[in-house]
Design goal:
Blueprint lengths: L10 E4 L2 H12 L14 E4 L12 E7 L7 H14 E10 L8 E4 L4 E4 L3 H7 L3 E9 L7 E8 L1
Parallel strand pairs: 1-2, 1-3, 3-4
Antiparallel strand pairs: 4-8, 5-6, 7-8
């Protein structure tokens, strides 16, 4: 989308200073990290994902990469709802599927371990978005894990 529309500037939201600097590096000097190996001019904001300090429909393209898997289940859902709220058109979301190495919530029940994972595709569809690209790809460091790549449109 960004390669074909130079006027679109992704908005990336991160709450942790270390990850902001990594995000800047990925977008500016390590463009091979983000497929399809293009340099993207992104707006990077330090903000909470669960309560984004932006107006409804104010960002044309919202980008999230491997952030949701690090936060609790309810906060993860709230974060995705917030990304949808501030996006006016597109969301690009890359996430570990969380079904092998790091489920969002781990809790012990009387009989078994409980692992809650998010079906990102179904969630975006339930929130009224059209999935224009959906792909699962192996994790570069752990081939038993899969990354989910989603591009959704309002």
């Amino acid at each position: 989308i960004c390669a074909n529309n130079k006027n679109i500037k992704p908005t990336c939201i991160e709450n942790h200073e270390k990850h902001i600097s990594q995000m800047l590096e990925n977008f500016q000097s390590r463009t091979d990290v983000i497929s399809p190996d293009i340099k993207v001019d992104a707006k990077i904001l330090q903000n909470s994902l669960t309560k984004i300090d932006l107006s409804n429909n104010s960002q044309e393209f919202v980008f999230s990469c491997t952030v949701i898997m690090h936060i609790p289940f309810i906060a993860a859902i709230a974060s995705i709802v917030e990304m949808v709220r501030v996006s006016s058109k597109y969301i690009c979301h890359i996430e570990n599927q969380n079904d092998v190495i790091n489920a969002i919530v781990r809790g012990k029940t009387q009989l078994q371990h409980q692992m809650l994972t998010i079906d990102y595709k179904k969630l975006y569809e339930k929130l009224g978005l059209n999935i224009i690209h959906y792909e699962k790809a192996p994790h570069p460091g752990n081939p038993t894990c899969k990354f989910v790549y989603i591009v959704a449109e309002k």
